[in-house]
Specification:
- The chain is of the alpha+beta class and 233 residues long.
- It folds into 2 domains: 2-23 and 30-56 and 113-171 and 206-224, no CATH class; 61-109.
- It has helices at 58-83, 88-109, 210-224, and strands at 2-4, 7-10, 16-18, 24-27, 37-43, 48-54, 116-118, 126-128, 143-148, 154-158, 161-163, 174-177, 183-187.
- The chain has a 4-stranded antiparallel β-sheet with strand order 3-2-10-9, with no helix packed on it. It has a 4-stranded antiparallel β-sheet with strand order 7-6-5-8, covered by helices on one side. The chain has a 3-stranded mixed β-sheet with strand order 4-12-13, with no helix packed on it.
- It is elongated, with a radius of gyration of 21 Å.
Amino acid sequence: MSYSPMRLSCTVCDYEAELKTSPVFVFEDRWNPLNPKIEDVWCHQCNGVSRAARSLASDEVSELLNQKATTIENFKRRSKRLFRGYTGKDQKRISELEEELHALKRMAESLPKVLLRCLTCGGQVCDRLFLWAKPPSFRDSPVVVDWVHECGGDLVCHPPAFHYNRSGANPDPVVTLDLRCRVVSAVNCNPENYKVGSHPSGTEEFILDSRGLEQARQTLERGKDGSNNPRRD
């Protein structure tokens, strides 16, 4: 059994596109909480639906580091209360937790300066499309996306359709990225398209100018209150 990806259509014009699911992007350290998030976006440079890597904003990074520091302090207080001091095992665990915190702080300093970047073209002005906690399943009806197309119509998300594939499914291409979204390895895909050490789009890494950075910040701010694009009256 296989399925066709979710697709988007416009309620006014004939725009229609499938949400990209290939290649599958994974990160070298899959358990690192500082990993960028892969999200479906509307890329203004592609002028269409794409996927982008969203780096954590400074307040998100600070929250993660504070949570880690709080975990260490809670562990210290609990151990002291139970044993009136630290056992050798406690000291070892505290050292491990503190090393993890220092490692996260070092990694946080090397996070990409660009908050949201298209994985197809490298463009940096993108609108996040989906803010629901759980995507619609194949049992659900089409869902209107809170984003207005350039023609003034709404984008409607159609859930994936499952079907039987007698010939069997081909293995998915998998591209592994590092913390800065540079290619580490590529499996089941053309290596020329994903060169090790480069951005998946093939563009050079660069930092936004002040205007582009402000646009990116506004894009992320629109996403925080649950809306991605001003609605029509």
